[in-house]
Amino acid sequence: MFYSVIVPCYKSDKTIEEVVVLTSQEFEKMGIKEYEFVLVNDCSPDEGKTWNEIKRLTNEYPTVKGINFSKNFGQHSAILAGLKYAEGDCFISMDDDLQTHPSQLSKLIEAFSEGYDVVYGYYPEKKHSLFRRLGTMFNNFSAEKLLNKPKDIHCTSLWIVRKYVRDYIISFDGPYPYLLGIILNATSNIKSVPVKHFERKYG
Q1: Distance CA 200, CA 43 (A)
Q2: In 3D, which of 22, 179, 184, 190 has the Cα closest to residue 100?
Q3: 100 - beta bridge partners?
Q4: Which of 2, 177, 19, 154 is nearest to 94 (CA)?
Q5: Of 10, 11, 25, 36, which sits 20 to 30 A from 78 (CA to CA)?
Q6: Distances (CA, A) of 40 to 12, 67, 83, 135, 196
Q7: Rg, the chain, Cα only
Q8: Predicted confidence (pLDDT) per residue in 23-61, tens digit
């Protein structure tokens, strides 16, 4: 099984190498030998620091690819672009700030091996601000009412999907992708598993 890891990057120059290294170590622990990273710079306003770091990583690590946006399109568009360039059999989305921590990936992959099409990691205890937590609650409430999301499915930016779900996602050609809505249209064979939410290391 070939795993593709998609990471939208925004002012990530201090963390993105650690994301790559720790994730690679977790894969090795699980006996996973075939994997890649697709790092998408969402036009970080940092005088090119994030993109320069991504370019350095592509030269240092043969498993790393980089994409650079000419303007800021947002997290969902960055993930969508990464999915289009990924070559794996299954696809993982995770953040660039180590709050969605590589040490938790084994929990997603274990559930994924049970035959689910999509597995989300969710956080029983979040390290986000109150404003972010309220935003997540509103997003989940809206998805339940408008998209018929089951109440027991908790959706975050940490997830793994099968190739046919990826193919369905990248078929979207509108300007404003909403990944949860696209995924819910693709399958109902979804599970969410509790994972630890870590403190942001920088910023």
Answers
A1: 21
A2: 22
A3: 197
A4: 19
A5: 25
A6: 10, 5, 10, 24, 24
A7: 16
A8: 999 999 999 999 999 999 999 999 999 999 999 999 999
- Supply the pTM of this predicted model: 0.87
Quick one: which of 196, 108, 119, 188 has its CA closest to 155?
119
Phi-psi region of 11 (alpha: psi -120 to 50; beta: other; left: phi over 0): left
Which tens digit of pLDDT belongs to each residue from 147-173?
555 566 777 899 999 999 999 999 998
pLDDT tens digit sequence for 174-184: 888 889 889 99
Report how far residue 197's alpha carbon sits from residue 98's, in angstroms, rounded to the nearest whole number: 9
Tokens found for residue 174:
């509108």
Distance (Å, whole) CA 44 – CA 73: 11
Which amino acid, 3?
Y
